[in-house]
Design brief:
Layout (H helix, E strand, L loop, with lengths): L2 H28 L14 H20 L2 H25 L4 H26 L4 H11 L8 H14 L5 H4 L7
Length: 174
């Protein structure tokens, strides 16, 4: 085995381990009880899916800014998130015949919500813009959109302070 091949394999394993840690951070934060409740995100498959979308939407762009290694980890993390979604669908009884269609539909929702959330977070009135995204996409009820948006914006504001080295080691701020 050539030294270069060994180096690539070692880097891939390291990136997979980092993606695993970041995936746990996303899922852990997406399960935070403060996000769920009466007017907030419903505690359902769709609600948890939306929470995972939101925290992924925060982390993926930050990884992309961390250079080539961050981009590689972002791709592996994306695969891991969708593999997890596939597994969750199968656990709910979705069969092989319809799994691809359902994952594709969820993928479209995932990237649509992520894009809308990213744009809202970049606006002057991030909390209000994000609350509007939540109402439009039925992520929350109108009564809880602002409260959840405030939480997400606070969590988003933590990401720039994370050093690339820490992020590339699998340390998310939450």
């Amino acid at each position: 085995m050539s030294l270069l091949r060994h180096f690539k394999r070692s880097n891939r394993r390291k990136s997979e381990e980092v993606a695993k840690r970041l995936h746990h951070a996303i899922v852990g934060k997406a399960r935070d009880p403060v996000l769920f409740g009466e007017d907030k995100i419903p505690d359902t498959f769709d609600g948890r899916f939306n929470a995972i979308c939101l925290y992924s939407a925060l982390l993926f762009p930050r990884l992309e800014k961390a250079g080539e290694q961050g981009q590689a980890i972002s791709r592996i993390l994306n695969d891991r998130v969708f593999s997890d979604i596939d597994g969750a669908l199968r656990e709910t009884g979705v069969g092989d015949a319809s799994i691809a269609r359902k994952v594709r539909k969820l993928g479209e929702r995932f990237f649509g919500l992520a894009r809308a959330a990213k744009e809202a977070l970049e606006s002057e009135q991030a909390v209000e813009s994000l609350a509007n995204v939540f109402e439009r996409n039925e992520v929350t009820s109108p009564g809880g959109a602002l409260e959840v948006a405030e939480i997400i914006v606070q969590d988003a504001q933590m990401l720039p302070s994370v050093a690339d080295e820490a992020l590339l080691a699998g340390k998310a701020p939450w």
